Amino acid sequence: MKLIRYGNKGFEKPGIIDENGDVRDLSDFIADIDGSTITADTLDRIRALDPQSLPKIEGSFRVGPCVGQVGKFVCVGLNYADHAAESNLPIPVEPIVFQKATSSICGPNDDVTIPPGSEKTDWEVELGIVIGKSGSHIKEADAFDHIAGYCVVHDVSERSYQNERGGQWTKGKSYDTFGPIGPWLVTADEVPDVHNLRLWLTVDGAERQAGSTETMIFSVPFLVDYISQFMSLQPGDIISTGTPPGVGMGMKPPTFLRAGQTVRLGIQGLGEQEQRTVMAG
Predict the structure, then answer these.
(1) Is the pLDDT of residue 54 over 90?
(2) pLDDT at position 111, please?
(3) pLDDT value at 168 more than 90
């Protein structure tokens, strides 16, 4: 299934994409798409519905973040060997884990705000894992049982905050609007091989990133296993699994986002995002 949240910010409603690509409303069955409604039992009940029997959403509408009330937004750095090389950093022996503030989360087509005075706001297309079952110390062999589905994540990053201001990466990853997610939460049963998905990103129509999840250093089940050794995972948590090469920081010369640009990105089978960059007012 492809689940979607639509409507004005803070007032999103739950929906499902039907076979024709239309949005059907789920409000009579669930209040939202969040940690309380993406457990296996609830997803099975939604799966049993006939989408054609649900109200069709007509006209234009805003697409919201594909998961509401996210508890943790956990990220993995340098999880593609070629991205580590372009960053002039060694391939990690263990996953580099950091957290992105959940206040950074926004809809997939909302504007991305460049912080005041920023000159190094960068782009990163990433695969997001959406947790559907609680657990800690999850075994790698059991990891897929804890995954509700996947989504597109744009891990927008301010490189001077991240790399030049001391401390950890979180401060360069957490500005409001730095975490577009969606358009859909695609349930795991619709992604037969999560390690063979094409990722891409363009800026003003120029290709910047083109990669595949097959070149990830640490696999999806390994990351769920690894991260759950240090913190419990709950339904609705998101793990962003790292980005392929092609970020602005790695270009020669380095190139970063400016106000008035258009960023488009997507992952095979998981949908596309499009954002306009604006300067903070």
Answers:
(1) yes
(2) 98
(3) no
Q: What is the pTM of this model?
A: 0.97
- Local confidence band at 137 (pLDDT 50, 70, 90 cut-offs): very high
Q: What's residue 167's pLDDT? A: 84
Q: What is the DSSP string of the chain?
A: -EEEEESSTT--EEEEE-TTS-EEE-TTT-S-SBTTT-SHHHHHHHHTS-GGGSPBPPS---B--SSBS-S-EEEEES-BHHHHHHTT-PPPSS-EEEE--GGGEE-TTSPEEEPTT-S-EE--EEEEEEE-S-BSS--GGGGGGGEEEEEEEE--EEHHHHHSSSS-GGGGT-STT-EEB-S-EEEGGG-S-TTS-EEEEEETTEEEEEEEGGGBSS-HHHHHHHHTTTS-B-TT-EEE----S--GGGSSS-----TT-EEEEEETTTEEEEEEEEE--
Rounded Cα gap, residues 3 and 183, in angstroms: 9
